[in-house]
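Summary of Year 1 activities. Much of the first year was spent building the evaluation harness for sequence design. The harness presents a backbone, in tokenized form, and records the residue chosen at every position. We chose the following record to illustrate the format because it has been used consistently in internal testing since the harness was completed.
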């Protein structure tokens, strides 16, 4: 072999050796990488297999059953029995009591359209005459009207009408309605109580009608004043008399205070103070009216009666009475 070819051959041998070393290094790195990644690949495979296995199970569980289970049937039966029983709230109030409270709050709310806001029961003239000029004088005036005037009398008529209607005593109810319509001191007061009574009955029959209400109204046979209307409608709905009485007198007092607040004028806070001061008077008047008979009827608020008469000829008026 020529001497000139030796360097070329040695170079080729070194190149081949270098390539073998590189290949072995690459193979070693690859094997180590595979060994290192094996747990990851294994866990991934397990996760994939678990998901594939669980999907059919989930789909099977979520399918609606063609036949109800016994436990579901028992629960449905228990729910039906519970619905049939009176529902009690957290304070022990039964469904009947809740319905009575709801209706009383609706019927005797200022938003119930009987037109009460347009009447003052003579308070407008009393304000112009100087008898009422602040919260204290308004409170004194209304306390007298409640305890010794139209408040007590209206409460007695409400109680008697409620009892007669509940007993289905048509003769007694007719006599009570006739006496209540005549038991007013002035033409404007008669307009006030009869207009509100008619509106109350009309709205109750249109929106809150019930079995027996139309018959009870027909027994009155004539003008139905406001307290009699409230008594008859509440009796037809089997609402307790005591609750009706307190709600009625509260609504009556609130309307009087509203008229005074606009006439004096009086702020909202002072109006609430007057209502708070009159609470014991309302409670006492309700108790007396519940225990009273028609023979106990009578009024001693002559100044308030004169105010309602004077209002008829008052020069400027905001209210109808």
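For this record, the design step produced the sequence shown next.
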């Amino acid at each position: 072999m020529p001497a000139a070819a030796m360097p070329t051959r040695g170079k080729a041998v070194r190149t081949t050796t270098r390539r073998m070393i590189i290949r072995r290094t690459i193979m070693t790195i690859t094997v180590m990488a595979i060994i290192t990644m094996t747990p990851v690949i294994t866990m991934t495979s397990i996760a994939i297999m678990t998901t594939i296995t669980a999907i059919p199970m989930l789909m099977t569980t979520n399918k609606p059953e063609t036949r109800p289970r016994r436990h579901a049937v028992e629960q449905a039966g228990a729910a039906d029995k519970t619905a049939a029983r009176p529902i009690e709230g957290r304070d022990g109030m039964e469904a009947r009591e809740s319905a009575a409270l709801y209706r009383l709050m609706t019927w005797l709310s200022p938003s119930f359209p009987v037109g009460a806001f347009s009447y003052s029961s003579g308070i407008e003239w009393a304000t112009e005459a100087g008898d009422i000029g602040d919260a204290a004088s308004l409170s004194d005036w209304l306390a007298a009207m409640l305890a010794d005037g139209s408040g007590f009398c209206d409460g007695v008529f409400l109680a008697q009408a409620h009892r007669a209607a509940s007993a289905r005593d048509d003769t007694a109810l007719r006599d009570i309605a006739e006496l209540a319509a005549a038991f007013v001191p002035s033409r404007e007061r008669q307009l006030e109580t009869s207009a509100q009574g008619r509106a109350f009955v009309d709205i109750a029959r249109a929106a809150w009608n019930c079995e027996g209400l139309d018959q009870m109204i027909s027994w009155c046979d004539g003008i139905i004043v406001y307290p009699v209307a409230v008594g008859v409608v509440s009796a037809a709905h089997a609402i307790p008399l005591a609750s009706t009485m307190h709600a009625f007198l509260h609504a009556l007092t609130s309307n009087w205070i509203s008229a005074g607040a606009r006439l004096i004028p009086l702020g909202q806070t002072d109006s609430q103070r007057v209502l708070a001061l009159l609470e014991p008077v309302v409670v006492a008047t309700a108790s007396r009216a519940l225990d009273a008979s028609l023979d106990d009827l009578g009024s001693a608020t002559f100044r308030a009666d004169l105010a309602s008469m004077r209002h008829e000829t008052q020069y400027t008026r905001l209210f109808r009475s």
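Residues 1-9, 33-73, 76-89 have pLDDT under 50 and may be disordered. Quantitative recovery figures across the full test set are reported in Table 2.
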